[in-house]
Amino acid sequence: MPNQRLRDALLRNTLGFDEVAKATGVDPKTVERWITQDRTPYPRHRHAIAAMVRETETYLWPDAVAPEKKKEINESEVVQVYAHRHAVPQDIWGHLIEQSKISISILVYAGMFLVDNPALIKTLRQKAESGVKIRLLLGDPASREVARRSEEEGIGKTTLGAKIRNALAVYKPLAEVPGVEIRVHGTTLYNSIYRFDDEMLVNTHVHGFMAAHAPVLHLRRLSGGDLFETYAESFQGVWDGAKPPKW
């Protein structure tokens, strides 16, 4: 079976066999076999390729890292654990946004605490204009999932939907900015995800508690780990099934 993940990663980064061969010090035919025959490169070659395509080794070669080593790497991906989202220092949010050079991806239902920052829209616009890809993924205010979550938080069936509409109104000026894409989803939200390049804040959701009172994991992506990658793939799955909002 061919390694479709590796093939896709090289195509997305416009990398050919010759370029990969030069970077890894092997023959182009060897690179071709890594793809067409799903051969597993040596660790030093995996490191080099993963860095070139900005993917983790675990994503490109799921079975290449030994379980014991993977466990160690996964534990190292956890930078900090906060008992509550409101315990995350405000300067952490600002720092992660400001340092982003490639992408910012946000998955929430409403995330109203973000738009409480009056400088957020201006900052996101500036980041997009500098080349940062921004994806904002909010809950569909008309969905059953949003209504259910609103009831579970004890704030009434329609309150969360109203919060989402308010958040969308704040984000609307970004809708026409090149590099910014806004979608809405109707999924059960198990975690809110805030990704800034290779760092991520994951706000877990707890039944009966508002998100601000639930724990947060601060993760940093490491080659060979799959904890960060799990949440990244989760975001992508929701994104793929989402749709443009009805302004």
Automatic annotation (TrEMBL):
Domain DUF5919: 122-244
Gene3D superfamilies: Endonuclease Chain A, lambda repressor-like DNA-binding domains
GO molecular function: DNA binding
Domain of life: Bacteria
InterPro entries in the record: DUF5919, Lambda_DNA-bd_dom_sf
Signal peptide: none
UniProt xrefs under Pfam families: DUF5919
Protein name in UniProt: DUF5919 domain-containing protein
Source species: Lentzea jiangxiensis
